[in-house]
């Protein structure tokens, strides 16, 4: 029996929800607050995201940004407002439904809890554990320590874990480097050796 680990954003769930939150709703609130047009607000907000950078834990946290920009709403309210944007990929649903019959499935995501819980709400019963690196481990990016720590918690060796995700470095190269059987999902370009559709995982896994 192996543990099969899935990235969330871009792998199980569409990025539309997350993108709407950061690139549409936040700039909209910023524009309202400071009396700017959307384009200008968007530029300022994006610049702030980039200046802080995704190596900083705060970059991932809606609460941090709402305070930083002094916005008049709460992230929770905005999340509620756009929750209809959450969409599980049909091929992901088929894959986890099939694999869950014989395997232990988990989620390993960078997304903060607020997003992750809502994002996989409809499919959470398929998974025995759902990890948010940023909220649970206070770590940005899925570094080797993250994968080691998960193996430790589940009392399995890296060789007993399969991981799949849509980030070449953090979902493929890094887990491979510690002995995890990892697969790169490339929905858009279908680069060589990558999975183009999550259902391909079923035939690629070596049991
Ligand atoms: Mg991803």
Topology summary:
Layout: E1 3-6, H1 16-34, H2 38-52, H3 62-68, H4 75-81, H5 90-99, E2 104-109, H6 113-119, E3 129-132, H7 133-136, H8 144-154, E4 161-165, H9 168-177, E5 181-184, H10 200-204
Parallel strand pairs: 1-2, 1-4, 2-3, 4-5
Bound molecules: magnesium ion.
Residues 7, 9-11, 165-167 line the site of magnesium ion.
Please describe what this structure looks like.
- The chain has 207 residues and is of the alpha/beta class.
- The protein has two domains: 3-14 and 87-204, HAD superfamily/HAD-like (Rossmann fold), CATH 3.40.50; 16-84, no CATH class.
- The chain is built from ten helices and five strands.
- The protein has a five-stranded parallel beta sheet with strand order 3-2-1-4-5.
- Strand 4, helix 9 (168-177) and strand 5 (181-184) form a beta-alpha-beta unit.
- Helix 1 packs across helix 2 (38-52).
- The chain is elongated.
- The model has no long low-confidence stretch (mean pLDDT 95).
- It binds magnesium ion (MG).
- Magnesium ion (MG) binds at residues 7, 9-11, 165-167.
Secondary-structure element sequence?
A: EHHHHHEHEHHEHEH
- List segments where confidence is low: pLDDT < 50 over at least 5 consecutive residues: none
Count of strand segments: 5
Q: Kindly report the oligomeric state of this protein.
A: single chain
Indicate the structural class.
alpha/beta
How many strands, what sense, and barrel or not for the largest sheet? 5 strands, parallel
Q: Give the overall form.
A: elongated
CATH topology of the largest domain: Rossmann fold
Radius of gyration: 18 Å
Ligands in the model, by name, code or SMILES, are: magnesium ion
- For this structure, what is the CATH homologous superfamily of the largest domain? HAD superfamily/HAD-like
- Counted by DSSP, the helix tally is 10
Named CATH architecture of the largest domain = 3-Layer(aba) Sandwich
Helical content stands at: 40-55%
Strand content bin: 5-15%
C-alpha end-to-end distance = 8 Å
Strand order of the largest sheet: 3-2-1-4-5
CATH class wording of the largest domain: Alpha Beta
Number of domains: 2
| Mean pLDDT rating | 95
């Amino acid at each position: 029996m192996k543990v099969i680990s899935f990235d969330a954003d871009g792998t199980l769930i569409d990025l539309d929800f997350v993108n709407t939150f950061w690139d549409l709703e936040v700039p909209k609130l910023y524009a309202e607050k400071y009396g700017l047009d959307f384009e200008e607000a968007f530029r300022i907000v994006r610049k702030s995201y980039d200046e802080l950078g995704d190596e900083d834990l705060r970059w991932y946290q809606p609460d941090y940004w709402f305070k930083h920009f002094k916005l008049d709403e709460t992230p929770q309210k905005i999340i509620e407002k756009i929750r209809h944007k959450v969409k599980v990929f049909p091929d992901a649903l088929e894959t986890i439904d099939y694999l869950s019959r014989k395997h232990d499935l988990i989620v390993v995501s960078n997304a903060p809890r607020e997003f992750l819980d809502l994002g996989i709400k409809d499919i959470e019963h398929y998974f025995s554990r759902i990890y948010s690196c940023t909220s649970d481990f206070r770590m940005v990016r899925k570094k080797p320590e993250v994968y080691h720590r998960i193996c430790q918690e589940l009392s399995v060796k890296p060789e007993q874990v399969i991981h799949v995700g849509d980030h070449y470095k953090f979902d493929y190269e890094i887990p491979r480097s510690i002995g995890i059987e990892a697969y790169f999902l490339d929905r858009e370009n279908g680069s060589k050796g990558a999975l183009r559709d999550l259902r391909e995982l079923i035939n690629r896994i070596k049991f």
